[in-house]
């Protein structure tokens, strides 16, 4: 057992809490600790406080980690558990992603229709994610997008209340909330997930050797390989949460990445696929190739690699 309980910081949405419990269970199991070795410390994140506007318009992914980053920095917590999909591509040096838990189902789930083809003409799709909106409009330009923020239960309730006809949710989130019967999972390569979807990451202070060592015991190498490749791709594309990008990675030592970039209205799309060793320059090379091929309507949403 650690000398005193380790403090695990998490957002307090039901999904974030489920993920925090999964992290605690895995860590205790790996080290033979009892549950009281880890104290769960929940926070209401800025991203959860503002529900009426798209995240991309109010400050982006930083709003999911701002409070927990502060608590890590001042020592109020020892580590923080995040959906890697929500963690910015560039993180401060003093933070380290010390563990990635085994990736869950990476797919999106369509709720409200049995398939994309079965969605009635002109139906309203509830989503605030640029990738989901663009991907759907690319396949079904007749559909209308309506903004749809909030946690999983809120979005399902909004759908029930008729605020939209169809919505899209991550299979991983539904699974972790025990809602496995909901909707139809959409398969690649027709429909691609978001970078790092389905992966839970644990961050701690880079100089906290003890916590890093404890977390390394539950790091899942294949997930790390895929998430690292997807984050390297995002970095080299200069994408942010406004940029409609979809990516699907298979493999671990050697990875195959299938990528699509869109204009926000979904009308213009470019894409590519490549296979390379996970720890190579492959993601950056693929990004450079995609950007050099990208039509203007797509390219303006990607700024390229940082200078
Ligand atoms: N954008 C919010 C968010 N961040 C992570 C997940 C689901 C879990 C995951 O992808 O790891 C969700 C909900 C959703 O997209 O339906």
UniProtKB/TrEMBL annotation:
Assembly information from the UniProt record: Monomer.
InterPro entries the UniProt entry points to: HemC, Porphobilin_deaminase_cofac_BS, Porphobilin_deaminase_N, Porphobilinogen_deaminase_C, Porphobilinogen_deaminase_C_sf
Catalytic activity: 4 porphobilinogen + H2O = hydroxymethylbilane + 4 NH4(+)
Annotated metabolic or biological route of this protein: Porphyrin-containing compound metabolism; protoporphyrin-IX biosynthesis; coproporphyrinogen-III from 5-aminolevulinate: step 2/4
UniProt-listed Pfam families: Porphobil_deam (PF01379), Porphobil_deamC (PF03900)
Family to which the UniProt record says this protein belongs: Belongs to the HMBS family.
Membrane-spanning intervals of the chain: none
Protein name: Hydroxymethylbilane synthase
């Amino acid at each position: 057992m650690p000398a005193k309980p380790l403090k695990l910081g998490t957002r307090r949405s039901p999904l974030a809490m489920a993920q925090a419990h999964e992290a605690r269970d895995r860590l205790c199991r790996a080290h033979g600790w009892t549950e009281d070795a880890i104290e769960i410390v929940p926070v209401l994140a800025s991203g959860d406080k503002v529900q009426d506007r798209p995240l991309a318009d109010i400050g982006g992914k930083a709003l999911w980690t701002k409070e927990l980053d502060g608590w890590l920095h001042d020592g109020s917590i020892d580590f923080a558990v995040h959906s890697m999909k929500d963690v910015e591509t560039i993180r401060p040096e003093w933070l380290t992603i010390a563990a990635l838990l085994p990736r869950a189902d990476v797919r999106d789930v369509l709720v409200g229709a049995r398939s994309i083809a079965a969605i009635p003409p002109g139906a309203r799709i509830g989503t605030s994610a640029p990738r989901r909106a663009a991907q759907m409009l690319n396949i079904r330009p007749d559909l209308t997008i309506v903004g749809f923020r909030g946690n999983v239960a809120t979005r399902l309730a909004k759908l029930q209340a008729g605020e939209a006809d169809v919505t899209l949710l991550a299979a991983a989130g539904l699974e972790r909330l025990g809602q496995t019967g909901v909707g139809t999972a959409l398969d690649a390569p027709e429909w691609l997930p978001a970078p790092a979807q389905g992966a839970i990451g644990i961050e701690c202070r880079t100089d906290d050797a003890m916590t890093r060592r404890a977390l390394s015991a539950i790091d899942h190498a294949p997930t790390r390989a895929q998430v690292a490749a997807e984050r390297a791709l995002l970095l080299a594309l200069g994408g942010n949460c406004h940029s409609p990008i979809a990516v699907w990675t298979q493999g671990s030592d050697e990875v195959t990445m299938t990528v699509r970039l869109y204009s926000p209205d979904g009308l213009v799309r470019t894409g590519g696929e490549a296979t390379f060793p996970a720890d190579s320059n492959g993601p950056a090379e693929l990004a450079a190739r995609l950007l050099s091929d990208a039509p203007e309507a797509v390219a303006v949403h990607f700024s390229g690699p940082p200078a």
